[in-house]
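Onboarding guide, step 5: your first structure request.
Type a short instruction followed by the sequence, for example:

Predict the 3D structure of this protein.
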Amino acid sequence: MTKNMGNTDKMVRIGVALVIALLYWQNIISGTLALVLIAVSVIFLLTSTASFCPIYKVLGISSRKTKAKK
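The system replies with structure tokens like these:
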């Protein structure tokens, strides 16, 4: 699994996941919408932890910066 997520991408995903968790915890979202958003937030946390996004892989995208070779 090649890493394809940059730091900014990971931080945004973690932030979105935390906001979703907070909305659920405060009972602002509930029902089916809450379950779908919680699933999305778990996926965001897992992909951020692994620095790998399967959708990016399929689309050939990478937000990771490459170091210049000297």
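Each response can be followed by summary notes, for example: Residues 31-50 form the longest helix (20 residues).
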